[in-house]
Amino acid sequence: MARVEIELNGRTYGIACEEGQEARLREISAFVDAKMSALGQGKPGVSESQLLVLTSLTLADQLFDLRSELAKARTGVGAAGNVDPGLEER
Question: Which of helix, strand or coil describes residue 76?
């Protein structure tokens, strides 16, 4: 098991991960940190806990949207709910 030091909102966290996954964990944590920073801008008085919850919910919302888009693409349903004739035959 490897251990990586990541930084979120100015705080350092030691996180365990599988060997070889260190770079990926750093990449993901940098993404989350950037999202936290963007969401925290202009919100004085928001606690770190609240910011972590807001960031988690925002990222989960984006994930759900992407999963829905992927499911529609796999079934051939277009944005307007119409089936793409070229995809029906697959």
Answer: coil
